[in-house]
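Thread: magnesium ion complex, take 2
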Amino acid sequence: MRLTVQWSHDRALSCHHQAPENLARAPNLQDYDSFTAGYGLDQARALVEGLPQGGLNIAHEAVDRHVHAGRGDRIALRWLGKDDSVREYSYRQLMAESNRFASVLSGLGIGRGERVFSLCGRQPELYIAALGTLKNGSVFSPLFAAFGPEPVRSRMEIGEARLLVTTASLYRKKVLPWRNELPSLGQVLLIDAGDDLPDGCLSLAALMADADPGHAVAATRPDDMALLHFTSGTTGRPKGAIHVHEAVVFHTLTGLYALDLHPDDIYWCTADPGWVTGTSYGIIAPLSLGVTLIVDEAEFDAERWYRILEQQRVAVWYTAPTAIRMLMKAGSEFAQQHDLSALRFLASVGEPLNPEAVVWGQRTFGIPFHDNWWQTETGGIMIANYAAETVKPGSMGRPLPGIEAGIVRRTDTGVSEVTAAGEVGELALKPGWPSMFRGYLHEQARYEKCFAGGWYLSGDLASRDEDGYYWFVGRADDVIKSAGHLIGPFEVESALLEHPAVAEAAVVGIPDEVAGETIKAYVALKPGFCASGELRREIQGLARKRLGAAVAPKAIAFRENLPKTRSGKIMRRLLKARELGLPEGDISTLESDER
Ligand code: ATP
Ligand code: MG
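Output below.
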C-alpha cells in the first residue's frame, strides 16, 4: 500500500533554525542521531529528583524541587485575566498554595487514589488544585468548562468523582441538575463562593485561608495513579486514560528535547488543561523545567494573541494547527504590527500541521514550525521535530529519545512490521515509556484492543521516509478508499489549503457504486471571499493539478465553519454521518458549528 501522492515530500523549503541573535541559544538536543543512539529510559529517569523520603510525585518535581534548590523566587505562573488583570505566583508561592490545597483535601477526608475533578476556566485556582491534588496523592481530572451538563456528569460518573472544584455559575448550570444522581460526589468547592453559598457547597477561599502552607507531600510511588484524562472524542465515545506519577519523567524529557525549554524561558501553551496537552505541557513539563508559564484566561483572539507574544516576550510557544489556521485566516498584517523577536521555538500538536501552515509560520515568525505527534494515551510527545534539525514541512518528525516507533499492519495473527520507506501502515509504539497510559478506566477490553504483537497501536496511519521522519496520513477511521487508491485526508486537505481563499478544509469518503468511495470536501473560506461556482471550480482545478483527477475531491461544499471538538480537531466522522443521514454518535465534545 503506497501513498497515492506524496507531494509535500518534495516541496523543498529551507526551514533551518534561525533564532534571533539576542536569543540564540544552543538547543538542548544538538545531534539527534548520536544522542538517541545510546539513550535509554534509565537515563531519562535521572531527570527527576524523587521525594526526599522516597517515592515520586509530579507536583514535587514541578514545584517544590525548585524552591529547595534556591530558585523559589522565580515566577512560575503568570496569569493573564480576560479583563487584562495579571496575577503572578513564584515557585515558592505556588508551593505554599498547592500545599494548602493538599491540606484542604486531607482535611475533608479525600484519600490517596480518589478522584478530584475540576470544572472551570483557566484560573490560577485550577493550577493550584491540580498540583495540590497530586500532592495529596489523589487523582486529578480536569474538565473543559464549556462542556454541557451531560458530558460533565458522564465523565464524573466514569471517574467516580469524590470532589469537584468549580465556580458558582458553572455549578448551578452544569452540576446541580444531576448532583443527587452521583452519590460518590461528596464535596463541591466553589472558587468564587459569595454570601449565598448553595447547599452542599463549600468556599474554597475560606478553606484555603485555614489550611496549612507547610503540608507534607504524600509519598506516592511512580506507578500510583495521578491523572485521569478523557480523550477528545474525535472518533467516538471519549475514553478515560489513566496516567501515573512516573509520567513526569517523560514530561521533563520531552519539555527539554521536543520543546527545547531552557530554565529562563517564558513559555506559553495555548491548550486548556481540560485536554491532555494543557496538563502535560500546560502545567507539568514547563514547571518541572523551572520556566515561567504564561496562562491566558481568554479564548482565541488574533490581536490578543500577538499582543501576548510581544508583551510577555514569549520565547517558546506551543499551540495547535487550528489556532494557526485561525491566525492565517485573520491575516498576517496583525503579526507585522507586533515585535515577535523574543520567539525562539514554535511547536504545534493535535492535528496534522499542513505544509501551508509551516510555510506561513516561517514567513510570519521568521522561525520554523515544529510539528509533533502524540495522543492522550501516550501522555507525552512521541514524535517531534527538533530545534537543531531541519524541518520537513508536513512531517511530524522523528521519535523522542527512548521511544521506539514503527509502521505496522494488522494481520489475522497479530501485526507485521512495514520497513520500506514511504509505505503506509498504522503508527505503532513499543510500550514501556513512563507517560504511557495504564488503562482506560473501567474499560479493560477497549484498552487491550490497543495492543498486538508487542506494539501499542495508535489508530493513526502514517509512513516513514528514508531519513526516519514520520508522515501522517490520517486516522484509520478517516482514510478513504477510492478506485483502488488509499487516500489520506491530510494530503487532500493540505492541497486545498494552498488556495488563497481556503481557511479550513475537511474531506470525507462518500459511498459510490463504481469507485467504492468518492471524495467530498467541506471548505471554510477566509474573510473577504464569497462562495461561488467559479471559486469552487478554481479550488477543484488546483486540487486536480496537485493531486491528480483520481484523488481530487469530486464535490466541494462551502461552510461557515467546520465541526470541531473542543480541543480543536475537525470531526470528519460527523460530516460524513450528516452527509449520509446516519446517527451523529457521541458529540459530547463538539463545539457548536454550522450544518
Ligand atoms: P478519540 O481518541 O476520543 O477519538 P482523539 O484521538 O482526537 O479522540 P486525542 O488523544 O486528544 O484524542 O488526540 C490524539 C490524536 O490527534 C492522534 O491520534 C492524531 O490522530 C491527532 N494528532 C495529534 N497530533 C498530531 C499531529 N502532529 N499530526 C497529525 N495528527 C495528530
Ligand atoms: Mg484517539
